Amino acid sequence: MVNTNSILLSDLISICPFKAECNPAYETVSHATEAWLNSYGIPYKESTQKFILGTALSIPHCSQARLRDVCDLWTLLVVADDILDNVPISEDVDGSTQQLLKNVTEALQTADSFKPLTPFAAALHDWWQRILINITPGCRERFLTAYRTASEAMFLHLANKKNRQTIPDLDTYIKFRRDTGLGVHIFVCIEYSLELDSIDECWENNAFKYLVDYAVDATSWANDVYSFNIEQSQGSYNLVSVLMHADPSLNI
């Protein structure tokens, strides 16, 4: 009998032509990242540890120091939703959200007067000070641009209750998901981890832009399938909801 309560995805690992490699510094970095998160009162869950392992598998050839930098950021972003969910929001939702957006964006600066409103902003500010020591100017600007785009798209979405309840068309959703999927951050972090300094022409090339978009789509959409039940129970939507809304004959 077919189990209608489960979703079966293709086994992509078995058909991957590349040998899986794990960064040899994984265990050391995992402990360091855990201690760093704990120092800001950020909960370290089992799923977080698995994500660090995924990071070590994604960039197996970088140095221990660069792996630590990337693991800290990627892990922090994974738990960001939980952190922001616990932040008190005033009755003035728009004003409160804009304040959070401004604070999180300002975390990526060198100003000593920065005052974080959340543990996430405090940890992000600390991380950015470390990154500024080694990051190249081009890599820094790419990261900042992508970060601002993602932050603004996500916070504007969260601030507008109508946006969260109105299911958009597919093209609108794809653009929104690309903006908030942090895909460009991943590529910039890979560039940073391997101590590369790509020229701007690479990132402005249309073929490269398409590759980035498709990579973001693949990871974001797979995540949407896995998280559909959780998101629909919270009154939100994702790719699955958008597709079923566009074609009522689709069902799961």
TrEMBL record:
The keyword Ligase is assigned to this record: no
Primary enzyme class: lyase
Cofactor(s) needed: Mg(2+)
GO biological process terms held by the UniProt record: isoprenoid biosynthetic process
InterPro entries attached to this UniProt entry: Isoprenoid_synthase_dom_sf, Terpene_cyclase-like_2
Enzyme Commission code: 4.2.3.-
Keywords, sorted A to Z: Lyase, Magnesium, Metal-binding
GO terms assigned for molecular function: metal ion binding; terpene synthase activity
Family the UniProt entry places it in: Belongs to the terpene synthase family.
Protein name (record): Terpene synthase
Source organism of the structure: Adineta steineri
